Amino acid sequence: MGIVRKITLRYLLRNPARTLLTVAAIALSVGMLCAVAGFAASLRDILEHAGVITRGSVGSALSPYYAIAAVAGIIIVICSVIVISNAFYISSSERLRQFGMLGSVGATGKQLGQSVVYEAAVLSAAAIPLGIALGASLQSVVARLANTVLREAKLVIDAGLDFRVALNPLAVVVAVVVALLTVLVSAWLPARKAARTSPVDAIRQAGAVQIRLEWLKTPRLVEKLFGFEGALAAKSLKRNRSKYRATVICLTLSVVLVVSMSSLVWLLNQDARVRFGGYDYDVLMYIRGDLGAVDGIDAQLQAIPNDGSRTYRYTVLSVAIPDGFYTERALESGMAYPGEYAKQMILYAIPDDGFLALSSANAGVSGAVLLNNAVSTINYERINEFAPYNCAPGTTLTYGVDMGADADRAEVLGELTVESVTYAVPWWIPADNYSGSNVNLVVSESTFRGMYALNSEVFKEHTTLAYFVTVADSPAYSESAKAVFAPFEKRDGFFFRLFDASEQARQYRNLIHTVAVFGYGFIAMLSLIAVTSVVTTISTGMALRRREFAMLVSVGMTPGGMNKMLAVEALLYGARSVVVGLPLGVALSLIMYLMMSGGLYLFPYQPPWRAMAASVAAVLLLTFATMRYSRRGTKKASIAEALRSETA
Q1: CA-closest candidate to residue 436, choices 396, 382, 398
Q2: In this predicted model, what pLDDT tens digit does every residue of 541-596 receive, in sequence order?
Q3: How confident is the model at residue 227 (pLDDT cuts 50, 70, 90)?
Q4: Residue 74 and residue 159 share a domain
Q5: Same domain assignment for residues 645 and 531
Q6: In whole numbers, what is the pLDDT of the chain averaged over residues?
Q7: Once rounded to an integer, what is the mean pLDDT over residues 55-81?
Q8: Domain count within the chain
Q9: Is the domain of 317 the same as that of 453?
Q10: CA distances (Å), 584 to each of 23, 67, 241, 248, 615, in order?
Q11: pLDDT at 254
Q12: Which of 259, 353, 431, 521 is the least buried, fewest Cβ under 10 Å from its Cβ?
């Protein structure tokens, strides 16, 4: 081993904390990049197994996931470069002095270059294998969590659709190259500066510190709140802000991601509440066909065990509009226009007892009830609700098919007498099935059957039975219902659709959990890099400030004053990350809210207060704890020894 390699290796061993933290930063960077690329490769294998894409192709189905993986990879690479280079930069003055000493005893520029290359090789050789192993471990942990969630949601039943550990060779090569280049460049910069500086100036650090008066002005508020120690802390951060800038960026990015991811999970949960929270049933079925066949299916469905059910029929027809039928409000709203001849009519048929409860007339189950409510419902939220019709009981309405179209196609079927008018929508009709833009009439089941008998072919084509069921085990009920419908599937004119609302809601919430697992997993991995950067920056910086601390103690600063100064430094250090990170995170969460709401604003925006408070607490706790721990190492040295020492 040459003298240059021996000196370089000795330097690394003499500074174990800095060496280990640098190795940790490189390993985390390589591991995260491998993990993200591995998840993308595993997703591709899953889609190939499912037949979504063909092997060797780059389908459009993968483009969003590749875009997300690319963005995550870019973020990781940027953070990795920042953290690794920062680990070298904060000790650049010490490295410059070391290269100056080597130059003073005759080391050539070539030998200094060899030292840099050897240091980069040693650090990379130790860190890169650890990083690859860490990436595989991270994949394994997150993949197990994701597979568990997906299987519980019954989104995955095929073993070939599981996430697995997959190392992407290209990602490994990119991670290795990025780590090697970053370490090499970061170690080479002090060597280049030493080569351009005389050995004496490099050892004496001539010109290493350049101070301009305006840079060190202390904010009056800091000095007023924290006194002389606070002023010293603020001056120290300003003097060394270039060394702390990289770590502030990493912490800021972590805060932004935590706040925005927490907001995304909240938005998805709110969307699930709006999307599925309005359901007062578990299973919904639509059946269209011959009335006799539909009645037979209804009887079989009633025999399947359930906790409750209700049905109604609806027929889509058209109705002639009498003069003065619409109110001024309806005309102004645009739901109708003067002179309109016909309008689409929805004829609802509900059980006789329900119709009697709805109707205020004494005509029994005959006639119709007009629903005089133009409410529009979007995701179970009622908007634009008013009474659109001037219609008194006793009004006769003519109904038929295509009455607003060509006269040749129009077909009048009969007349209906409005026995009563109500503003309330009967509970049989769920909010998402009701549209106030149509003319909505309700008749009894008995009246409907009489109308059906007169025009059976038309009603057979235009009538649908809506069947709502409340049941604990909705998947089992759905399977039983499908078995009932199976014999009718090939009949002409028969239509059937089943919607398992309970299962859909459960799958959607489990999908949210999967997003949270991946999102928070990525944030946790990125936060490890930020933590490594904080620990590296503060611990190395504190070790290099032993002489400064000894000088302050020698002029009378008490241990309490020293602790106060460092506490203020930690506070200011963390505050910079929080002050920038929180507004950016809130802004990003607000953008996501606006994108997801689509301009409807069905639920109000709420800043992620808990995530914001947790981010502030975590950042301050990390900086305070690291500063306090690093300070313990500087207390052991004597003042005289610290003042005499040129370096840590």
Answers
A1: 382
A2: 676 676 777 777 777 777 777 778 888 888 887 888 889 889 998 988 888 788 76
A3: confident
A4: yes
A5: yes
A6: 75
A7: 60
A8: 3
A9: yes
A10: 31, 22, 21, 14, 13
A11: 80
A12: 353
- Non-local CB neighbours of 21 within 8 Å, separated by 6+ positions: 87, 532, 535, 536, 539, 540
Q: Characterize the bridge pairing of strands 411-422 and 368-371.
A: parallel
Q: Are 335 and 424 part of one and the same domain?
A: yes
Q: 234 and 162 share a domain?
A: no
pLDDT at 275: 62
Distances (CA, A) of 89 to 56, 205, 251: 44, 15, 18
Q: Do 536 and 86 form a contact (C-beta atoms < 8 A)?
A: yes
> Would you state the pLDDT for residue 15?
74
What six digits make up the tokens of 192?
A: 């280049």
CA distance 64 to 77: 20
Q: Which of 346, 334, 339, 335 is nearest to 321 (CA)?
A: 339
Give the residue with greater pLDDT, 77 vs 479: 479
**Start-to-end Cα distance in the chain:** 27
Structural domain includes residue 289: no
Residue 294 lies in a domain: no
* Domain co-membership, 186 together with 335: no
pTM of the model: 0.59
pLDDT at 379: 45
Q: Identify whether residues 197 and 155 lie together within a single domain.
A: yes
Q: Pick from 192, 208, 224: which residue ends a domain? A: 208
Q: Is the dihedral of CA 443, 447, 451, 456 positive or negative?
A: positive
Both tokens of residue 147?
Answer: 């597979």
Distance CA 439, CA 422 (A): 13
- Tell me which amino acid residue 178 is: V
Q: How far is CA 13 from CA 18, 123, 592, in A?
A: 9, 11, 49
Q: What is the pLDDT of residues 144-156, one digit of tens each?
A: 777 776 666 555 5
Domain boundary among 186, 208, 230: 208
Average pLDDT over residues 430-434: 68
The 3-class SS string of 189-223 reads: HHHHHHHCCCHHHHHHCCCCCCCCHHHHCCCHHHH
74 or 417, which is more confident: 417
Structure tokens at 523: 């944030």
CA 108, distance to chain mean position in Å, is 54
Residue 68: its pLDDT value, please?
A: 57
CA distance 88 to 96: 11
The mean pLDDT of 305-325, rounded to a whole number, is 87
Q: What span, in angstroms and rounded, lies between the C-alpha atoms of 45 and 37? A: 13
Spatial separation of the C-alpha atoms in residues 97 and 99, rounded to whole Å: 6
Token pair recorded at residue 598: 């689509």
183 is a domain residue = yes
Domain that holds residue 548: 211-279+504-648
> Higher model confidence: residue 194 or residue 120?
120
Residues 55, 61, 62, CA angle at the centre, nearest 5°?
70
Residue 203 sits in the same domain as residue 246 = no
